[in-house]
Every structure is written in C-alpha cells, then in structure tokens.
TrEMBL record:
<dbReference type="InterPro" id="IPR004622">
    <property type="entry name" value="DNA_pol_HolB"/>
</dbReference>
<keyword id="KW-0239">DNA-directed DNA polymerase</keyword>
<dbReference type="InterPro" id="IPR015199">
    <property type="entry name" value="DNA_pol_III_delta_C"/>
</dbReference>
<protein>
    <recommendedName>
        <fullName>DNA polymerase III subunit delta'</fullName>
        <ecNumber>2.7.7.7</ecNumber>
    </recommendedName>
</protein>
<keyword id="KW-0548">Nucleotidyltransferase</keyword>
<dbReference type="InterPro" id="IPR027417">
    <property type="entry name" value="P-loop_NTPase"/>
</dbReference>
<dbReference type="InterPro" id="IPR050238">
    <property type="entry name" value="DNA_Rep/Repair_Clamp_Loader"/>
</dbReference>
<dbReference type="Pfam" id="PF09115">
    <property type="entry name" value="DNApol3-delta_C"/>
</dbReference>
<keyword id="KW-0235">DNA replication</keyword>
<feature type="domain" description="DNA polymerase III delta subunit C-terminal">
    <location>
        <begin position="218"/>
        <end position="324"/>
    </location>
</feature>
<dbReference type="Pfam" id="PF13177">
    <property type="entry name" value="DNA_pol3_delta2"/>
</dbReference>
<keyword id="KW-0808">Transferase</keyword>
Length: 335
C-alpha cells in the first residue's frame, strides 16, 4: 500500500520499466513510509498481471505475497535471539543486527531458480542493521547479481552503510510530505493535536501517529515542563519517576535532543522546529545560554541515544543526563 504523498515518487520510479536497477536504496526520514513503499515495489515486481503501474492484488503472485508466503520473496530484518540459561525457558529478543548467517541463507535463495520463472526479490530493512560481516557477504552478491535477482534496501541512516554497498545501489530519497497533506492524513486517522505531534515528528506523519498516544503525550509534556525550569529541576526525583513509569531511554533521549535542537535554533534563527507549543518557555531559556556548552551537551545526549538499544541502567542514565542538562543550560558568563 502506498500513501497519498508517495504517488508522484512511485510513478517516476515505475515509469522506468525494465531500466530499474538490480539494487535500490530507499532513504529518507523515519516515519514517512519508506518500508510501505519498498513492500509495494516488491509486490509490483512479483505481480504477474500485465498492469504496468501497480500490483493487481488478485493474481496468484499477489495473493501469495500478501499472505506472506511467496516463494520468490525474502524480507531480511534483524535476527531474533534466544537468551536464558539451561534451566530456564529461553526468551526471544530482537537483535539490533542482521547477521552474516542470515545473509548466507539469503545468498542461497538468490542463486536458486525462481519458482514462477520471474524475479527473486529481497527486501532488507533497516539496511544499516547489517553488521560488518553481513554487509561484506551481501556485497559479493550485489557486485555480481544472478539474473532476475532484485534487491530493495530501506534505510533511515544510509550514510552508515559501507560505501561499497552504497555504490552498488541506486539511491531513491523519499521526501517528507507537504505539511497540509500530512495534517489531512492524520485527521483521517483520528489523531488529536495533530499539529503538535507532526511538529515533534519533524513533519513525518507516521512518526506523528506513533507519538500521538495519550500516555506518551502526557509523559512528554510533563518531562518538558521539568526541563523548562532547570533551577527547580530535581534530577534524582525525575529520574526515579521516569524509571518507575518504564519510559524507554530511547524516548527520553529523543525528547531531550529535540528540546536542545529547538533551544539552539532559537539562538541562531529565532524559530522552533519540534516544539512550537513550547516556544514561550524555550525562548525564556534560550536568551541566557552558552551555545558552545549547549552543543557539547547535545553531543552527549546523541551518544546516549545511540546506546539506548543496549542493556542499560535506565535510572542511572537519566540521572547523568539530567544533571548534565542543569549544567548545560546554566546562564552564560557575560564577563
């Protein structure tokens, strides 16, 4: 399924017909529908209808694809790992990585003859989850793809891919939809406070939908309210509340990094990107800041965000970040 804002990009791509590359890298901001676009393309490549511009949805190939069992399609995602000791039932946990064993199995599939005498299509998402060994194993196939093999790589952070992987793909940068179109779509989904959620999501409508959960919204507003008055901020108390509420480290660092971005943006361009509904409180802070100190702290938050998928003592992370925040936003020395 395509989203309305993707129709022009879809038509431009599909008009290439047989000139489509054997490997396509879909890039763009998280939450704009890259995965939906990639899956729609995969179905279109496998569709056995004569329709040129979209999958028919009714042929055998489309029905198999939609049921998740097309023999000529593979979707590669981070591995599921088992953890636990011998005396306990292992728990399954999603890994952060696509492994070399997964890619080796994929290479076996790619070199088989197609069951339907057509294409064999592979979708890899997110492509930046390929670990180094997996990326190198995939590279060999991208360099010398067998006839009929097609690869669709979806990436939120495409610059993290090996340069050799990027060079074997044609990149298609999908764009954020126009604001009014995104707001109209959010209204159709019944999202309340769509403007604030869309702003926080940087204009990405699917991300805005995910952020619209009432509990998440309330937690975010409470957290930003604490940041707005750093002199009264109690890092230990707030860290304890966040930990008890089971707010993920990734979410807290996301809120914090966007708040810092807006503080810096106010100082440089007198505008707010992510939290326009907090513009007044942001402005009162921004006038007294040391921009160098603020950006150094922003780097610290981004590092914590990168590590958020690893096992962490969340409360300790929150305490360190919040004490650091108090130092970062203290008034600059004017002397």
């Amino acid at each position: 399924m395509l989203y309305q804002w993707q129709l022009a990009e879809w038509q431009a791509l599909i008009s290439q017909g047989e000139r489509l590359p054997h490997a396509l890298l879909l890039t763009g901001e998280p939450g704009i529908g890259k995965l939906a676009f990639g899956r729609h393309l995969a179905q279109s490549l496998l569709c056995e209808s004569t329709a040129a511009d979209k999958p028919c949805g009714v042929c055998d190939a489309c029905r198999w694809y939609l049921a998740g069992n097309h023999p000529d399609f593979r979707e590669l995602t981070p591995a599921v790992e088992e953890e636990g000791d011998d005396d306990a039932k292992p728990k399954k946990k999603a890994s952060a990585w696509i492994t070399v064993d997964q890619v080796r199995e994929l290479n076996d599939f790619v070199h088989l003859s197609a069951h339907r005498a057509g294409r064999r299509v592979t979708l890899i998402q997110p492509a930046e989850a390929l670990n180094l060994a997996a990326a190198n194993a995939l590279l060999k196939t991208l360099e010398e793809p067998p006839p009929g093999a097609m690869f669709i790589l979806v990436s939120h952070q495409w610059r993290r891919l090996l340069p050799t992987i990027r060079s074997r793909c044609r990149r298609l940068a999908l764009t954020i939809p126009p604001r009014e179109q995104a707001l109209a779509w959010l209204a159709q989904q019944g999202i309340s406070d769509a403007e604030a959620n869309l702003a926080e999501a940087g204009g990405a409508p699917l991300a805005a939908q995910e952020r619209s959960d009432a509990g998440v919204t309330a937690a975010r507003r409470s957290f930003l309210g604490e940041l707005a008055d750093p002199r009264k901020l109690d890092p230990l108390g707030l860290a304890e509340r966040l930990d008890k509420q089971k707010v993920e480290v990734a979410r807290v660092t996301d809120w914090l990094s966007r708040w810092l971005h807006d503080l810096a943006r106010l100082g440089l361009a007198q505008s707010v990107r992510y939290y326009p509904d907090e513009a007044g409180r942001l402005a009162s802070l921004a006038t007294t800041l040391d921009p160098v100190r603020l950006m150094r702290y922003h780097d610290t938050v981004l590092e914590a965000k990168k590590l958020s998928s690893h096992p962490l003592n969340a409360r300790l992370v929150y305490e360190q970040l919040l004490f650091g925040y108090q130092q970062a936003v203290r008034p600059a020395n004017k002397g």
